[in-house]
Design brief:
CATH architecture of the largest domain: Alpha-Beta Barrel
Oligomer: single chain
Strand content: 15-25%
Helix content: 10-25%
Shape: globular
Number of domains: 2
CATH superfamily of the largest domain: Glycosidases
Distance between the termini: 11 Å
Structural class: alpha/beta
CATH topology of the largest domain: TIM Barrel
Number of strands: 26
CATH class of the largest domain: Alpha Beta
Length: 452
């Protein structure tokens, strides 16, 4: 059977809601609440949220993200851009003498009293507002430049001993917060080649990250949900920490270096690992990020990632079996405000975080989450055998299909307005209902039932 729309095909419909603490599903492929309800991870990268935003600004952003359907706000306690030495918007630093075993805290938390309201009170305030809005905080204890001998401002302040103490301190502080998801890493691999005293050598930081996980679990137990945010590239957490017992969720970062990243194949690779763990793209191409600005050759002709680039990558990775995805906007994660901080790799266009918060792609991500939660969830599998015609092979033409194991529905992502042949015998029942789904609007157009 042939169809000629550049949209997503869907079959059948019913609604599911999810809420509560998350854990890995029984089949080790997806996420769920403690009540056993499906949880589709729809994250947003707000890395500098605690460091660069006031209470009022944070409230504005969080309300926008709530309305857009996001359920995981990813932010960093010890931020990337001089997060140890540059005070937050209230003039506070996070640590005493740059020692992660000594948080800079003061008695009280009165927002009207500058002596009481410290750095960590501000983190508390934002985490609590995220909870009030029914969302989770994907909390990174630190950005990776405070651990790894790679790029970044640092300074490197962690070792095994203070990493464990620091993590345990945070775990105690947030032990009663229902909405914490712990994310270690911070845009750095755990094993790598780096420089020390101007000499290149092999580094293995797994002992430090392991100590941090140990600190969390010493307070919260093994039920604490912990994952890791790696650096960009075709490797993922499966490259260096897949077997760590504390790692509940594999992730990768398909990143901002090119449009060609075949993230759907990375999902397939991760899910083939044993023991099986869920996986997702924790940092696909950011909307309005210049394509590969680091080689010194960027031009407007090379351009920016747009909403289509984002949609095509995230739909494919999810249809390939990912348990969710993290969206990002290049001028949101850094909360671009040139009156306060210089812009980072913005090409030749300044948008500003307030306008960027309502970008086209940001408004469209909710349609993916609603779609995935509208069908039987845990029985979904990737199945390219649904596609009888040429399935494509690259970011321009790859068609990705997924279906229910019992054959009650199928989704097929179509990137181009070209004919496609689909094997409907994979689906149950004598009659099939065809529905065209527009990922830009979330609207569906139904066709008449098809006899088979």
């Amino acid at each position: 059977m042939k169809f000629t729309q550049s949209l997503t095909i869907i079959l059948l419909l019913f609604a599911v809601k999810s809420f509560g603490q998350i854990r890995v599903s029984i089949d080790q492929r997806y996420l769920m609440t403690t009540e056993g309800k499906p949880f589709f991870w729809l994250g947003d990268t707000d890395w500098e949220l605690f460091h660069r935003m006031t209470r009022e600004e944070a409230e504005e952003l969080l309300e926008i993200r709530k309305q857009q359907g996001f359920n995981v706000i990813q932010a960093v306690a010890l931020a990337e851009f001089n997060g140890i030495r540059q005070p937050n918007r209230y003039g506070d630093l996070p640590l005493i003498d740059e020692d992660p075993a000594r948080l800079a805290v003061t008695p009280g938390a009165n927002t009207a009293n500058d002596h009481e309201y410290d750095y960590w009170d501000h983190v508390d305030f934002i985490i609590n507002r995220i909870a009030d809005k029914g969302m989770y905080i994907g909390l990174l204890p630190t950005w990776g430049d405070k651990v790894a001998h790679l790029w970044g401002e640092g300074p490197i302040i962690f070792n095994e001993a203070n990493a464990e103490v620091y993590a345990a301190t945070l775990a105690k502080r947030y032990a009663n917060n229902w909405n914490i998801i712990w994310i270690l890493g911070g845009d750095r691999p755990a094993t790598y080649k780096g420089k020390f005293n101007n000499e290149e050598k092999e580094f293995d930081d797994r002992a430090i990250w392991r100590a941090m996980a140990k600190g969390l679990e010493s307070v919260l137990g093994s039920e604490a949900f912990i994952t890791y945010h790696p650096a960009g590239g075709s490797f993922s957490t499966t490259s260096f920490i897949h077997d760590e017992p504390w790692l509940d969720l594999n992730t990768f970062q398909s990143g901002h270096g090119s449009r060609e990243a075949d993230a759907w194949n990375w999902v397939k690779r991760d899910l083939a690992m044993k023991p099986q763990k869920p996986t997702l793209d924790m940092e696909p191409c950011y909307e309005d990020h210049p394509v590969n600005p680091w080689d010194g050759k960027w031009t407007r002709e090379r351009g920016y990632f747009n909403a289509y680039d984002v949609r095509s990558r995230v739909y494919r990775s999810v249809f390939a079996g990912a348990c969710g995805v993290t969206y990002g906007h290049h001028q949101i994660w850094q909360f671009l405000n040139t009156e306060l901080n210089p812009p980072v790799n913005v090409g030749d266009t300044l948008i500003g975080w307030q306008k960027a918060a309502k970008a086209e792609g940001a408004n469209q991500m909710q349609h993916l989450k609603k779609l995935m939660l509208s069908r039987p969830y845990f029985s979904r599998i990737a199945d390219q055998s649904l596609i009888v015609s040429e399935p494509g092979s690259n970011y321009k033409d790859a068609i990705i299909a997924t279906r229910d194991e019992q054959g009650t529905y199928a989704f097929v992502y179509l990137p181009q307005n070209k004919p496609i042949s689909i094997d409907l015998s994979k689906l149950s029942g004598d009659n099939k209902m065809i529905i065209w789904f527009d990922p830009r609007t979330g609207k569906s157009i139904s066709e008449k039932p098809v006899n088979w």
